[in-house]
Amino acid sequence: MVKAIGLLCILLASIMIVGCGRGNSREPQAAYPTPLITDAEAIAPTTPAPTIEETLETESSSRPNFVDLRVELLTAIFRRAGRSEFTGFYNDYQRSLFDFLLPYREHPAVVFARDLPLGFDAVPNFAIHMKRAGNGFVLVDNQYFLFTCGRWTEESVATFIELVNDFYFDTGFGEFFASQTEHYENITEIFIRDVYSNLNHDWFYAHGVRPDQMRIVINPNHTQTGYGPSLWEDAYGTISASYSIVPGRYNYTGVDWLRLTVHEFNHTFANPIAARWYEENEAFRELSRASVGSIPWYPQSLTMAFEYVTRAYDILYLVENEDADPIPLLLDEMINGFPYIETVFAMITDYELMGIDRLLDFRLRGAYTLGDESHSYTHADGHTVSWRYVNFPEGFRPDPFLVPHRQFGNIFPTDTGDVLYVVCSHNHRQIIIDLGGFRGLRSYYIFPHGASSSSNFVSGVEIEDMIQFALGVDYYVNPEVHEFELSGGNIIRWHVIDLLGAALDIGDLFHVTYGNIFGTQTGDVILVIRDTDGQLYIDLGPGGWHPEIRSYFVLPVG
């Protein structure tokens, strides 16, 4: 195994933590690139269209069932439309749903969803604003929060609700839903046992959400993230229902699913607080704006404001109910892309701000001093990065092999294990640890990660040099450009990388995403270009459920 990439893989594997969805919610983290899978019918065996009979409802049962017909229906439409946030195949249920939806690629509801300029939380938000009427669905009377984020319009809502009803009847989706009742009940029991039974409902009552207003929805079509929409009788006035929409899984181990459940409920009371602060508190508004760009699925400053306050209350819940130490929780959120979370947490509690020195002390876990001499580097665009070395007493030094690769750099004259305290011209403050170098590039751990992009620490280096560093072997990038147009018009472009006779041992690499558009074989390496960003895709072999779907490890290189 090439040492450079092996180390990076192990380190990257250690940071697959859960973050929160998009818009009014939180997405596991991050951390899966979009599956690059065409929705061509050739990728799965065709099945005959279901018999269109009278729609059946889920049969009554004494077993609890947290799966909501409306949410499953809406996310199924967007899955068939090829929307990236609702693709992916992680279990037999999603395969069954895919097979069921296969004949309906050109259904008007699917075509309409494919062209809508929205997704993520906007989809379940539409679903909870639907209610049953006869054998179909109508919208609830108060639709205010369908339109607050400027994505749904009155015209698109009026058109789509009719198309949703058509899809429901034309496909016999009610029959499919009823046929999955046992599965829904099984995953509900697992969720109740492992997660929901540990939830303190009374804590939310103290924050204005009564237990009878709380609605848990399991969404087995979607296994990676959660959403937190709410129904209100008026604009942030009286709550009708607070939803925590969580993934449907066969098990809930390996991730803090209780925290995700709490997070989605917290949006109900935290979003109004954030909206008021954003309007009235200039300092809060500015820190929300300054954080935009650190996490791509929160592209608006108001959305960042919602996330800041909600995540602060997540931490408060864990402190008050799980006796958690707030410091590592705050540090985790800084790493996740919320560098000012400590300030926001102090706004909802009597927490005393630690400041950068005490946070440094906690993170480095030992005595240290900052060097007296200040160094700086100014990029061609005028952006300046300043730093001082962090000095440690004899016998203590951070182990660079226990922290994950975050960014590349070449402007700091560091050696492996060196620690810097960095201040960028936009006043982002970070700790960086040198993890090692190759041919003029250094690999760095960055804390907090979300405060800056890799371009701050690299100058005059082409993306090809990044690849050389990552692979650790000589290679040749074939200049021929391949491309594929995904549904919705997005173009994916890539180059094939020739390793010039070298072979990568892929045994230790872990699955990150699926794809079937590249035509690669096991061990092949390609460079995928999106805008100015590059990613190495390494083919790990068939995806498991169909021979034409490939599993890929993905490594950012620029």
End-to-end Cα distance = 23 Å
* Uncertain segments: 1-33, 39-60, 450-455
Helix content: 25-40%
Shape: globular
Number of separate helices: 16
Strand content: 15-25%
> What about the largest sheet?
7 strands, antiparallel
| Whole-number mean pLDDT | 77
Q: How many individual β-strands?
A: 21
The structure class reads: alpha+beta
Total domain modules: 4
Q: What integer value in Å does the Rg equal? A: 25 Å
Written overview of the protein:
33% of the residues lie in helices and 20% in strands. By secondary structure, the chain is of the alpha+beta class. The strands form five sheets. Strands 8, 9, 10, 11, 12, 13 and 14 form a seven-stranded antiparallel beta sheet that branches. Helix 2 runs antiparallel to helix 5 (122-128), helix 10 (257-280) packs across helix 11 (282-291) and helix 12 runs antiparallel to helix 13 (326-336). The two termini are 23 Å apart. 39% of the residues are buried.
Structure, briefly:
The chain is α+β, with helices and mostly antiparallel strands and 558 residues long.
Features:
4 domains, alpha+beta, seven-stranded antiparallel beta sheet, disordered N terminus, 558 residues
Please describe the topology of this protein.
Layout: H1 3-13, E1 25-26, H2 69-80, H3 92-101, H4 108-115, H5 122-128, E2 130-133, E3 136-139, H6 154-171, H7 173-179, H8 181-194, H9 201-205, E4 214-219, E5 226-227, E6 230-232, E7 239-247, H10 257-280, H11 282-291, H12 301-322, H13 326-336, H14 341-348, H15 355-364, E8 369-370, E9 375-378, E10 384-391, E11 407-409, E12 419-424, E13 429-438, E14 441-447, H16 463-471, E15 476-477, E16 482-485, E17 491-498, E18 513-515, E19 525-530, E20 533-542, E21 550-556
Parallel strand pairs: 4-7
Antiparallel strand pairs: 1-5, 2-3, 6-7, 8-10, 9-10, 10-12, 11-14, 12-13, 13-14, 15-17, 16-17, 17-19, 18-21, 19-20, 20-21
